[in-house]
Structure formats: C-alpha cells, structure tokens
Amino acid sequence: MTDLRLENVAICLNARFVPSRSLPTQLERQLRPNIEIAKRLNAIKAMVLWLMVPAKDLADGAILHFVASNELDLFLTVSEKQIFHSSREDEALRNTIGWKFENAWPLAWYFGYHSPDISGQMMTGEQMQKILFKYTCPLNWKIEDWLQTKEVVSEEELRKLEDLFYCMHNAVRSAQMGGQTVPPGFDPRANGGVIHERRHALTWMLSKGMGWDETDLST
What we know:
The chain is mostly helical. The chain contains ten helices and no strands. The chain is globular, with a radius of gyration of 18 Å. The two termini are 16 Å apart. The mean pLDDT is 96.
C-alpha cells in the first residue's frame, strides 16, 4: 500500500469501517478544470433553489437566467434538466433533492467549506443554506468572475479525501452484500447512500472529461 492508502485505511478502521486490503492504489484520476467544478456546484444550487424556495420569494426567471447565462445545462444530467420543466411544488422531486445536498458538500469543500464528514449522516438544511449563500456564486454574477474570488484546496488534499471515500465506499458496498464492514448502527442503504453521493462528487472532480453519470464509482 502507498502511504496515503495506509493513512486512509487507518482512518477507516478507527471509525469502524473495514475496506478491502486489496483495493488498487494506482487509479486513473485526472483533475478537471476548476470552472467545471464550480459550474457543477452551481448547477446543484439552481436545482435546490427551484424546488426549495417558493416562487413568490425567487422568480423562475432569476434561476433560469442564472442557468442559461452560465451554461449550467452542460453540467446537468438529462433527468436533472427536466427539473426546470417541472412544478416548483413537485413533492416527489423535493423528496429526492436531499441527495444533491450530499453531492454539493464535497464540491463546496473544494471552494472553502469544511471537509465532509464520514459518519454517513445526511446534511441539515442549515448546512445547505450556508453553502448556498456563502460558497456558491450569486445569481446575478458570472461564475468565471466568482471563481476569481475563491481559493481552492490543493490537488493533493483532494486526492487524499477522494481515496478515503473510495475506501469507505468499498466498506459500504461490502455491508450492502451482508458483510460486517461498517460501524454498529450504520444503515448500509441510507447512511451508505450518503457516502456514495459524497464519493461521487469527489471522484467526478478527478475524472476529467467524464460526464456526471459516466463517473466510475466501482470499488
């Protein structure tokens, strides 16, 4: 194992996650441009605002202009694009938007928010509000201009955190197949889904040229 992997396995074991000792360490990972990471984060912001903020408080046009002027449709999946053709009162969509919060946390961490935890607990609404108002681009700005005001974490830090969640995701997958590889009280499906979504964002950031749905999440 590399020193990085040894350190991450130690973190996992200390938290009572048991990843496989045979996971590969030489993975094809290439950092994508900062602007792409910023646009994916702000695409999530637009989806959250569309579904979670009443139209009387934030007009449709303001969100749609933000999406169009920053070409955020390039960082939305086919199904995500449909959100902006749906009612802002759609309860089914609201009930699934929480997973986007989990995607947003690692992306916001890249721009200065604190590191995503490994407990598997879902983000609170208060946490997401802080990300929306302090770690994303204002609706009347261009993301390229906003990016100039931000510092990002080092590639080394990103690779280290991505590897940690890769190891944790492996432990989660093993638990989902019946293994005793996660802490007591950790739900392999619900809490495991949180780990999966955070890992998705981290691995996507290191998957230059790959679309969101094309991200390799194998363990």
